[in-house]
Design a protein that fits this description.
Elements lengths: L6 E5 L4 H12 L3 E6 L2 H13 L4 E5 L5 H15 L4 E4 L14 H29 L2 E6 L12 H21 L4 E8 L6 H13 L6 H8 L8 H12 L10 E4 L7
Parallel strand pairs: 1-2, 1-4, 2-3, 4-5, 5-6, 6-7
Length: about 260
């Protein structure tokens, strides 16, 4: 399948997995709309795409704010005419003992990780309904399939993403819209720079040994990469995955297998 001249919106595109997905799709000729809460980061991804000869646009958007999302979608449709793909990558993660977990941290995590995907899907699906086609990839997590300690809000949000994905796949499959999600294991992005110290404290590890600890648990004996996630995303968006919908694909080197 050619991605040439297709239009994709990627949230969390300013860094990490979201940026890598944006670059992967742009390389295939997709017009990529880079969404991030950090304007500078979104603009940097747009510039990277432009330097490689791709077509891109960027917006500073808080995925918790429906009005801003709706205005952005209107702008994208006015400029590019349609939206073919939506990739929901925006997310936050905090390791916090449950009894120290504040209500505000719970609300923030659920709002960004789950409500943000709900609002983005709600804004984009009407466009896909008009053209009777579209593909959505929501970013869940291995922690959306198996709970872990001191991760209550994050696990809850990512379990929720899987439920949202299945619900939308059933509702809009008859309209030619596919919705899938990815459950990555440990992918060493900028979020782990701080989080590894909290994880080390939780497991009584040296922070410098946290990633080695993960590698030893994984059958393939390596961490996931941003490129791993980007390539799987590209596949799920493509016609090669035309009979796949409502699924959450593990991407964890065999760490969990259900």
């Amino acid at each position: 399948m050619s991605f040439n001249k297709k239009v994709a919106i990627v949230t969390g595109a300013g860094s990490g997995i979201g940026r890598e997905i944006s670059l992967e799709l742009a390389q295939e000729g997709t017009m990529v709309v880079c969404i991030d809460a950090n304007k500078k980061s979104a603009s940097e991804t747009e510039e990277l795409i432009s330097r490689k000869g791709g077509t891109s646009n960027s917006f500073e958007i808080d995925v918790r704010v429906k009005k801003d999302i709706d205005n952005m979608v209107d702008s994208v449709v006015n400029k590019f005419g349609t939206i073919d793909y939506l990739i929901n990558c925006a997310g936050i993660s905090t390791i916090t003992p449950f009894l120290q977990h504040s209500e505000s941290l719970w609300d923030q995590t659920l709002d960004v990780n789950l409500k943000g995907q709900f609002l983005m899907c709600q804004a984009v699906i009407p466009i896909m309904l008009k053209q009777e086609s579209g593909s959505i990839v929501n970013m869940s997590s291995q922690s959306g399939k198996v709970g872990t300690t001191q991760y209550a809000a994050y696990c809850s949000s990512k379990f929720g993403v899987i439920g949202l994905t299945q619900s939308l796949a059933k509702e809009f499959g008859p309209n030619g819209i596919r919705v899938n999600s990815i459950a990555p294991g440990v992918v060493y992005t900028h979020m782990w720079e701080k989080q590894k110290f909290d994880y080390a404290k939780k497991r009584n590890l040296d922070p410098n040994h946290v990633m080695d600890y993960f590698k030893e648990k994984i059958p393939l004996r390596r961490l996931g990469t941003e490129e791993d996630v980007a390539k799987l995303t590209r596949f799920l968006l493509s016609d090669n995955a035309s009979y796949i919908t409502g699924q959450t694909i593990n991407l964890n080197g065999g760490d969990i297998m259900f």
